[in-house]
Amino acid sequence: MSKRSASDDLSELKGSSAVKTSADSFPTNNASVEGDIEMGEFEDPYGDEFESDGEIIQLDEEEDEEEDEASASKKIEELENAEAEEEKESTIYLPHRSKPLGPDEVLEADPSVYEMLHNVNMPWPCLTVDILPDNLGNERRTYPASVYVATATQASRNKDNNLIAMKLSSLAKTLVKDEDDDDDEEDEDDEDVDPIMDSETIPLKDTTNRIRVSPHASQTGEYLTATMSESGEAFIYDLSSQFKAFDTPGFMIPKNAKRPIHTIRSHGNVEGYGLDWSPLVNTGALLTGDVSGRIHLTSRTTSSWVTDKTPFFASQSSIEDIQWSTGESTVFATAGCDGYVRIWDTRSKKHKPALSTVASKSDVNVISWCGKINHLLASGHDDGTWSVWDLRNFSSQTPSPVANYDFHKSPITSISFNPLDESIIAVSSEDNTVTLWDLAVEADDEEISNQRKETKELNDIPPQLLFVHWQRDVKDVRWHKQIPGCLISTGSDGLNIWKTISV
User: What is the rounded CA–CA span in Å between residue 87 and residue 82?
Assistant: First the structure.
């Protein structure tokens, strides 16, 4: 194909250009200056008939569009009504009050009410957890945060069980994005950072019912950790090597650090749940209780560990929980399946309780001794109720609790006073929730009264209830003593490390 020159193209353009002859005239074609050209072949052969048809077709289309718009508007109106109805329903999940979850439904946490919330998936359910004290300082409120924890598994096969020590670092503050914020102008300090998990495992022969870490670990350098196994044996480990490995790159954990330093066999093959380290005896004093009602004290001597062969005994009912006194080094409390809370003294030669009271008509599953006020003890029961007791009233035959709540309708699985605030208590239940309570709140508080008037769903909820955290099959909850308001809870779906804006 031959190329044409630019001049040829320009000449053709000039031959067909439109020229305006005057200010008020329309441009005319140079080729037709001599006279007007009729429409000729460009005239519409169908005349007005085609235009009329076109108008009819256009009217039909307009009617269809109107019908479509009406149908769309109706659907939008229906959706808006449905959303309005949903908004009328409770948006707060409350155990035994909210609609039960479907088989494929899960609850999503509202990030605006959490200061921090992280979930750690575990290879097997870990139904007990405790916190390893660290040397990072107290009253830590900055982010990212770091925590050290110890837990143990309940695997389907005994040989698959492990004691797991973990360091969880880069725990970022929960971010709540403001719709008005520009994505390009986000603060670099608020960027979401992925948490880091380092773990060390110790193989176990059986599942573990409870694990507890000595509160003196960071002071003595020995991370004494006790486990109560399903086989009836209780083991004492020193996790100081595992703890060192988390912060010392290249450190090799000795083989003997993966074996227990002492095994308690006084319970025979009878399993147990009661387990607690003394907060006042830093050399190591451990209490263990079994389902036959026997309690053994294991103390440390200069060369070894010694278990008192004579058990503390009051009833054949199972010892569900044990708590050392936070104020007296020889006093401890027990919770039993017979509904009793008992106070004991290790100096008693008869090994009998000094005080006893019926705390519930059902099993007393868990207890917690207040660290700030030594005469306060909380108990959680199998019927879902929980109470706070003033031990000074135990001298009477039928003491009454200073506080009692029946908010939960399923068994209480864990209860714990906040170590930094004596009025705050965490309670976990088989209804898949952990609730936080503030006993300092007065029922006639004006602000709370106004809130209850505005929100009908709060009418039958105790004003002391601060917060409800959902976690599937939650079994144990612990406060972090060095991070105010931080809790670690464990259930069938793993560990939750969280802190609410309410505490």
Answer: 9
CA–CA distance, 77 with 168 (Å, rounded to integer): 49
Give the separation between CA 314 and CA 330, rounded to whole angstroms: 18
**Distances from the Cα of 216 to the Cαs of 131, 220, 277, 282, 285, in angstroms?**
12, 6, 9, 6, 11
Number of structural domains (the chain) is 1
Annotate 70-102 with b (16+ C-beta within 10 A) or e (fewer). eeeeeeeeeeeeeeeeeeeeeeebbbeeeeeee
CATH number at 313 reads 2.130.10.10
> Taking the model in full, what pTM does it have?
0.79
pLDDT value, residue 22: 44
Tokens of 345: 């003294």
Pairing of β 28-29 and β 476-479: unpaired
Which pLDDT band holds residue 66 (cuts at 50, 70, 90)? low
Structural domain contains residue 493: yes
Compute the C-alpha angle 441/446/447, nearest 5°. 80
Length of the chain as a residue count: 503
Residues 6+ apart with CB under 8 A from 189: none
Range of the domain at 448: 113-176+192-500
| Residue 185: pLDDT over 90 | no
Residue 231 token pair: 């086989």
